[in-house]
């Protein structure tokens, strides 16, 4: 179904969206702060009738608000810009020139899918733009959503009226359900059921009495231990199952394809997301492996794209999968710069000294405390911290590395989440070299490549100071030779 | 102790005007006055009998404030004047800043997005201005602190004009 034309080129969203918004109270939600004092004024005195009346009233209100905002909303995708008109009393007309559009995302939340609708997000972020910069056309049919996406993207690239050939589609990666087994080892997926448990425990708090406490009070000690073990085991099982389910909901049916000059990613069980990235804007790739993921050789890959809002989510090339898969995707986009070079021994010394200083300070404090009060726990903790700290320092050092190849370069760091960044030479829009007093004495430097994508800068931490000029010259254009001491005038 | 190795990268060619020392001294003096006001308030209003670390703090605080005064007013402005350097080469803007921790920043002119000149209240008293060279990266900003105002304006105009000529994609 193509939406009715209000005027030439001007379109309306589907009227079915009114139902979706009525159910979700999308517009009526804004009225809640006004309603609360009114309700408080009248009180809940009337019993069931009042509550029923209020429910009906709120639904009618929500329906009216949704209908009004649908009635006043229209959009038009012209050959040079997208125009959105909306607003009840104060009309707002937003015009987004096509050449400022960075990407189009089509998403279908569960309720939208029931009504056969999708939501189209047009990303026109300009550098430091806020949420408002995004243009959302909420509630068009699936076919119209696809038409709008293609229309906006093709108007932008090629001149109008040129018959563009049907772009070739090539599948780069496809979700494998076995990858869900990695989920319990990934911090962010584990956090999903933990958050749910947190919400549940707040509900339990409201239950009269103390159900958890009651469990432990009455039983014999042995039985209590069994119950405790059961509870802990059950919680762990829930956590594992929850993380797998959470990962499945977000990533189900993930598929990454190349269509012409764009990368298209589709994923999600309930809300299907359809994200499109221009390959020409990709400046690099980040492959990250958390502590647990490293145990099983899992990884995730994210594209670093210039001028992309919410890049961490939209740039995902592989949300969760085998490390080799992540790297093969990465090498499709950016040339491999070759094996990483380890950083000098002084970098390891720095980390070990840091660990020793904190660990020994705690131990010394613990010894003083122990001598005065006879409590030696802090001293023991200090000793443990020292040993663990030194081990951690060694792993932190092992994670460090950098490499510069003919067309790209790479830096790696991190222990809890080890992240390796591969960037194209052209990505670098500046260098920052940093040396603290200690680094100067140790002959080390932290070299940051400033890029207009991702987090804005990626650092090779504690590399040999003497290697800085050759690394920066190899990893970017000829302008970086200005850093070389040999060019001192 | 080992000798300090040569710095990692080349030092930019040009130094800041001497009046920057005066500006840094005044800035330090202002922060020192605030620090002493805080320390004075502590000595006045917190009774020595308050237990805990207070008796020790009554000694440590004035000593720390005095040390800070000597370093911030007497030493830091001169060290900073030796560290802060800048240079505009044929292809790039280049600075060194900091004092204990030093930072070199290099941005090619072809990637410059905007050039700003700002004059703070104190800077105006000393006839100085800061040139900020911004790029598409949040971390790739070069700030040339405390140039003479006329010079800052000329540098900014020159950079903006050259950026216009050689600009490629800039991202």
Concise summary:
Chain A is α+β, with helices and mostly antiparallel strands and 489 residues long.
Q: What integer value in Å does the Rg of chain A equal?
A: 29 Å
CATH-derived architecture of the largest domain in chain B? Roll
Main-sheet strand order of chain A equals 8-7-6-12-11-10-9
Total helices of chain B: the number is: 4
Q: State the helical fraction of chain B.
A: 40-55%
Give the overall shape of chain A. globular
Average of pLDDT of chain B: 88
Q: Report the sheet-strand fraction of chain B.
A: 15-25%
What is the CA-CA span between the terminal residues of chain B? 45 Å
Please give the number of β-strands of chain B. 7
* Biggest pleated-sheet summary of chain B: 4 strands, antiparallel
Descriptive key words:
heterodimer, A: 489 residues, alpha+beta, PH-domain like, 3 domains, 7-stranded antiparallel sheet, 15 helices, B: 171 residues, 4-stranded antiparallel sheet, 3-stranded antiparallel sheet, 7 strands, elongated
Explain what you see.
The complex is a heterodimer of chains A (489) and B (171). Chain A is α+β, with helices and mostly antiparallel strands and 489 residues long. Chain A has three domains: 5-164, PH-domain like (Roll); 166-333, no CATH class; 345-487, no CATH class. Chain A is 43% helix and 27% strand. Chain A is built from 15 helices and 21 strands. Chain A has helices at 17-24, 32-42, 48-71, 110-114, 142-157, 187-206, 211-218, 221-251, 291-296, 311-314, 323-333, 345-373, 377-399, 437-442, 468-475; strands spanning 5-7, 10-11, 74-77, 81-86, 92-97, 103-108, 117-123, 135-141, 169-174, 255-259, 262-267, 272-278, 282-290, 298-305, 316-322, 401-404, 408-413, 417-424, 428-435, 444-451, 457-464. In chain A, the strands form four sheets. Chain A has a seven-stranded antiparallel beta sheet with strand order 8-7-6-12-11-10-9. In chain A, strands 15-14-13-18-17-16 form a six-stranded antiparallel beta sheet. In chain A, strands 1-2-3-4-5 form a five-stranded antiparallel beta sheet. In chain A, a hairpin with a 2-residue loop joins β1 and β2. Mean pLDDT of chain A is 82; it is low at 127-131, 158-163 and 208-216. By secondary structure, chain B is α+β, with helices and mostly antiparallel strands. Chain B folds into two domains: 16-82; 86-166, PH-domain like (Roll), CATH 2.30.29. Helices cover 47% and strands 23% of the residues of chain B. Chain B has helices at 19-45, 54-83, 121-125, 149-166, and strands spanning 14-15, 85-88, 92-98, 102-108, 114-118, 128-134, 142-148. Chain B has a four-stranded antiparallel beta sheet with strand order 1-2-3-4. Chain B has a three-stranded antiparallel beta sheet with strand order 5-6-7. In chain B, α1 packs antiparallel against α2 (54-83). The longest helix of chain B has 30 residues, at 54-83. Chain B is elongated and about 70 Å long. The termini of chain B are far apart. The mean pLDDT of chain B is 88. Chains A and B meet through β19, α14, β20 and α15 of A and β4 of B. β19 (428-435) of chain A pairs antiparallel with β4 of chain B.
């Amino acid at each position: 179904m193509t939406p009715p034309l209000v005027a030439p080129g001007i379109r309306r969203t589907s009227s079915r969206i009114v139902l979706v918004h009525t159910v979700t109270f999308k517009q009526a939600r804004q009225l809640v702060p006004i309603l609360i004092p009114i309700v408080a004024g009248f009180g809940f005195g009337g019993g069931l009738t009042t509550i029923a009346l209020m429910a009906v009233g709120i639904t009618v209100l929500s329906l009216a608000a949704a209908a009004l905002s649908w009635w006043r909303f229209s959009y038009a995708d012209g050959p040079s810009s997208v125009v959105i008109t909306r607003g009840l009393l104060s009309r707002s007309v937003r015009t987004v020139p096509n050449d400022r559009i960075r990407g189009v995302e089509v998403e279908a939340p569960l309720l939208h899918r029931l009504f056969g609708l999708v939501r189209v997000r047009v990303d026109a972020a300009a550098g430091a733009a806020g949420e408002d910069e995004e243009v959302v056309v909420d509630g068009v049919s699936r076919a119209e959503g696809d038409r709008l996406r293609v229309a906006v993207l093709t108007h932008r690239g090629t001149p109008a009226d040129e018959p563009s050939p049907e772009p070739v589609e090539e599948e780069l990666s496809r979700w494998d359900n076995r990858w869900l087994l990695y989920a319990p080892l990934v911090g962010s997926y584990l956090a999903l059921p933990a958050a749910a448990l947190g919400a549940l425990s707040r509900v339990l708090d409201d239950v009269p009495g103390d159900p958890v406490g009651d469990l432990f009070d009455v039983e014999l000690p042995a039985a209590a231990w069994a119950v405790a073990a059961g509870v802990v085991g059950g919680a762990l099982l829930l956590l594992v199952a929850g993380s797998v389910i959470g990962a499945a909901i977000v990533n189900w049916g993930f598929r990454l394809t190349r269509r012409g000059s764009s990368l298209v990613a589709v994923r999600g069980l309930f809300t299907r997301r359809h994200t499109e990235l221009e390959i020409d804007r990709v400046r690099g790739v980040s492959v990250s492996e958390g502590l647990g993921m490293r145990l099983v050789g899992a990884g995730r890959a994210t594209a670093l794209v210039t001028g992309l809002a919410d890049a961490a989510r939209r740039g995902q090339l592989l949300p969760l999968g085998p490390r080799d898969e992540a790297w093969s995707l990465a090498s499709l986009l950016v040339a491999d710069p070759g094996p990483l070079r380890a950083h000098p021994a002084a970098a390891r010394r720095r980390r070990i000294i840091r660990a020793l200083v904190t660990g020994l300070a705690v131990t010394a404090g613990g010894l003083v405390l122990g001598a005065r009060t006879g409590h030696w726990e802090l001293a023991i903790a200090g000793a443990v911290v020292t040993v663990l700290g030194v081990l951690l320092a060694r792993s932190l050092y092992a994670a460090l590395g950098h490499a510069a190849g003919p067309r790209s370069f790479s830096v790696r760091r991190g222990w809890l989440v080890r992240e390796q960044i591969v960037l194209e030479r052209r990505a670098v829009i500046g260098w920052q070299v940093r040396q603290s007093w200690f680094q100067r004495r140790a002959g080390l430097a932290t070299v940051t490549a400033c890029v207009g994508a991702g987090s804005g800068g990626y650092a090779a931490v504690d590399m040999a100071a003497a290697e800085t000029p050759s690394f920066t010259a190899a990893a970017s254009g000829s302008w970086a030779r200005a850093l070389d001491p040999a060019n001192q005038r | 102790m080992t000798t300090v190795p040569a710095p990692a990268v080349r030092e930019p060619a040009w130094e800041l005007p001497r009046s920057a020392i005066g500006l840094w001294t005044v800035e330090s003096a202002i922060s020192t006055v605030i620090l002493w006001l805080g320390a004075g308030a502590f000595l006045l209003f917190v009774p020595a009998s308050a237990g805990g670390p207070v008796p020790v703090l009554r000694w440590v605080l004035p000593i720390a404030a005095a040390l800070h005064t000597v370093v911030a007013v007497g030493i830091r402005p001169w060290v900073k004047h030796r560290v802060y350097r800048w240079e505009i080469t044929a292809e790039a803007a280049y600075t060194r800043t900091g004092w204990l921790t030093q930072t070199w920043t290099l941005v090619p002119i072809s990637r410059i997005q905007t050039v700003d000149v700002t004059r703070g209240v104190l800077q105006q008293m000393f006839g100085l201005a800061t040139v900020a060279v911004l790029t598409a990266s949040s971390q790739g900003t070069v700030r040339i602190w405390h140039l003479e105002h006329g010079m800052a304006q000329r540098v900014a105009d020159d950079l903006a004009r050259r950026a216009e000529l050689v600009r490629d994609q800039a991202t």
